[in-house]
From TrEMBL:
Designated name of the protein: Major facilitator superfamily (MFS) profile domain-containing protein
UniProt KW keywords: Membrane, Transmembrane, Transmembrane helix, Transport
GO MF entries: transmembrane transporter activity
Compartments (UniProt record): Membrane
Domain Major facilitator superfamily (MFS) profile: 33-463
Transmembrane spans: 33-55, 67-91, 98-118, 124-145, 157-178, 184-202, 272-295, 327-345, 357-375, 439-458
Keyword Cell inner membrane carried by entry: no
UniProt topology in membrane: Multi-pass membrane protein
Transmembrane keyword on record: yes
A single GO cellular-component term on record: membrane
Source species taxonomy: Eukaryota, Haptista, Haptophyta, Pavlovophyceae, Pavlovales
Segment forming the signal sequence: none
């Protein structure tokens, strides 16, 4: 057991949060934060993914159109877009723990009330409120990565997202058990129940020491780290906790303008585009899985199977086989997360996101030919795994690239743009798929390719780097990256210029040699009429061959 010692009063020796976390062994504090934050992700995942299952039943009960059913998903993402900014601001000003607790209360109350909605309009209103609560998931992610040392931060961040995938699989299983017999209201009620367990566990969760440092509350930050050292059986570095580079004017959270300073505007724009495309494709893959099975666009369903009591027209319920295929496709998220877990700290965040984007695009295109139901299910399996893996890798990257002083704000706005992608995708997955499934899948594949291009062109690779505490630290890193790019560009220009000079010099020498050949050929013609003259075509061929041999390999 670690022996608690009072902090030295001398300011001569100090340590940073990263140095303290790097020295601590992984222990009870880390496990506690991981489990509570993971359960928060499971709760949020359940509330989002149930939308894929209740849509067909709501269509049948209230006779709503495809566009109205899609709006039920859109309204949830509208609430998530609103809540993301709110919870991010609360997290930066009042703490990650309080923000997460309040968002859980909203999910619990509004989620259970959805089961008693008497009309489609009331259901939409309640799902809007649920969406506001669900957007607090990014706060849990921030809290976790801020407690983790740099050596395991990426892998633990990805491991956290397995809770989301577990929630997705659990929701698919619950839908398989409850929907055919009890109906969609029971599914809504029981899906909100896990939020109660999360609410009971929230008080046991420690606050982030990085939040305290960003607020200038160094005594509380050091006390939190010393409690963690006591629980984990480790010791802190000698000295006292340093303020680091977190300036006083950063305390209390940032402003939107902080994301659009001259140095950060490119980073922010790329992050917003990344998150929009990631959400558009991921939630699209979730919704289109159910829609392809329900609509039976490829004609796999046996003749006369009406889907377990489907109504005429647009009312088509899922069959038992459809639920089973959906469970298999949803289970693809688990290997996707596992693969991401192993590669994100090997090839980096940018390459992980980019490669998985291209895999997802290929899987979506393979669904279009309608080769067979097992082949379609396999392609959907790969699609869901790649989509979930890249989305979680994006969470890791954004949580690392934004400094502590504006991390909640940056993640909040990124989350809002992801919700815009989520608001848009139902009209492709749930409306366009009903009439033109091939076009819908093609749009998603194109969006995945664009997502990959954004990922490969991100400026900063956060693999193995300490998390930034202030905006100034991020600016220094961006300046280094841009300086290296400028140096490489200047070096390339010099190489090309040197190659041009060498080519010009050798061409001049070649002209001189050609003139000498002309003179010699003319002299030989006068002296011996029987001698063969050097033909123009032959000379051109000889000169071209000689020129090619004279050029350096890079100029050829």
């Amino acid at each position: 057991m670690a022996r608690l010692e009072p902090a030295p009063e001398s300011d001569a020796q100090t340590f940073s949060v990263d140095e303290a976390l790097e020295k601590l062994p992984l222990g009870w504090t880390h496990l506690k934060v991981f489990c509570v934050c993971g359960f928060a992700w499971m709760v949020d995942g359940i509330e989002v993914l149930l939308l894929a299952f209740i849509g067909p039943s709501v269509r049948c009960e209230w006779g709503v159109s495809d566009a109205q059913a899609a709006s039920m998903t859109t309204i949830v993402f509208a609430g998530m877009s609103i809540g993301a900014v709110c919870w991010g601001a609360i997290a930066d000003r009042y703490g990650r723990r309080l923000s997460l607790t309040l968002s859980t209360v909203v999910i619990l109350v509004a989620g259970m009330l959805c089961a008693f909605a008497g009309s489609f309009q009331i259901l939409l209103l309640l799902r809007l409120i649920v969406g506001i609560g669900v957007s607090g998931a990014h706060v849990a992610f921030s809290l976790l990565v801020e407690w983790m040392p740099p050596r395991v931060r990426g892998r633990v961040g990805i491991a956290l997202t397995t809770w989301w995938s577990l929630g997705a699989v659990a929701e698919a299983l619950c839908a398989r058990l409850l929907m055919p017999t009890l109906g969609w209201r029971y599914l809504l009620f029981f899906s909100a129940a896990p939020a109660l367990l999360l609410l009971l566990a929230a008080p046991w969760m420690p606050e982030s020491p990085r939040f305290y440092v960003a607020q200038g509350r160094l005594a509380e930050a050091e006390a939190s780290l010393r409690r963690a050292a006591h629980q984990c059986g480790g010791t802190l570095p000698a000295g006292t906790l340093a303020r680091g580079a977190a300036p006083l004017n950063d305390a209390g959270g940032g402003k939107l303008g902080d994301l659009f300073t001259r140095e950060l505007r490119r980073l922010t724009a790329s992050q917003w585009g990344l998150w929009f495309a990631a959400a558009f494709t991921y939630y699209g893959s979730v919704l289109i899985t159910t829609e392809l099975l329900a609509a039976d666009s490829c004609g796999y369903r046996s003749t006369g199977d009406a889907g377990g009591g489907s109504a005429a027209g647009q009312c088509t319920l899922l069959t038992a086989d459809d639920y089973d295929a959906n469970i298999v496709a949803t289970a693809g998220e688990l290997p996707g997360i596992i693969i991401t877990f192993f590669v994100i700290d090997r090839i980096g965040r940018r390459r992980t996101i980019g490669c998985e984007s291209l895999v997802m695009a290929a899987a979506m295109l393979l669904v279009i030919p309608c080769l067979s139901l097992p082949f379609q299910t396999g392609a959907l399996f790969v699609m869901r795994g790649a989509a979930d893996g890249l989305f979680q890798a994006a969470f890791v990257y954004t949580s690392e690239v934004y400094p502590s002083s504006i991390r909640g704000l940056g993640l909040g706005w990124c989350s809002s743009f992801s919700r815009l992608g989520g608001m848009t995708t139902p009209f492709v997955a749930q409306v366009l798929t009903r009439t033109s499934p091939g076009i819908a899948l093609g749009l998603y594949a194109a969006a995945a390719v664009c997502l990959g291009l954004i990922a490969f062109t991100l400026e900063v690779e956060t693999l193995g780097k300490p998390m930034f505490t202030s905006v100034d630290e991020l600016r220094v890193e961006l300046d280094k990256v841009r300086s290296r790019r400028k140096t490489r560009g200047t070096w390339l220009e010099l190489r090309l210029s040197t190659a041009d000079e060498r080519t010009g010099t050798r061409a001049s020498k070649l002209d001189t040699r050609a003139s000498k050949l002309d003179i010699r050929a003319g002299t030989a013609g006068k002296g011996a009429s029987t001698s063969r003259t050097f033909g123009a075509d032959e000379f051109d061929a000889h000169a071209s061959w000689h020129s090619a041999l004279s050029l350096p390999p890079t100029a050829r």
